Give the backbone structure.
Amino acid sequence: MTPEAIYTDGGVIGPNPSKLGITWAWCQVWGDSLLRSGSGVIEPADLEMETCSNNIAELMGALRGLLSVPVGWDGILYTDSKVTLHRITDSFSFKGVPQGIINRVLKIRRGRKYRVVLLAGHPTRAEMKSGCAVRNGLPVSKWNVWCDKECCRLATEFKEQRG
């Protein structure tokens, strides 16, 4: 089954920018059901960088989510990053992003049919109940919260393994 939506998130391990690395997560959703998910950790050396920023983490979540569906997918990608929204749709501002990631984003954008919707990140319980963030009027989603928790879980696990 092809998902109707992909929710994504990313985060840094420690302070931003991180010398330790970044986490990313995505989940494919149909209706109210989770179909598939993916997540991971990327260390700065993996990207030939000294540090990685939260913006790169958010972009990696969206990129990996879009790579998980067939070319020409026409669903909705949800992100809580305005920078990622612009980069994954129409911006050519990729300051600090490795060229390999830029090339993959630009390739995915060619002939895109997906739409991108900005969510409010880190909603309160009251905002989750109402479906909307008071601070900015943006929608909120349990799936974005799921991705955020997965990123936090990976960051904690990574730090514990590092000692």
User: Anything to note?
Assistant: The longest strand covers residues 33-42. Helices lie at 54-67, 82-89, 99-109, 125-130, 142-162. DSSP finds five helices and five strands in the chain.
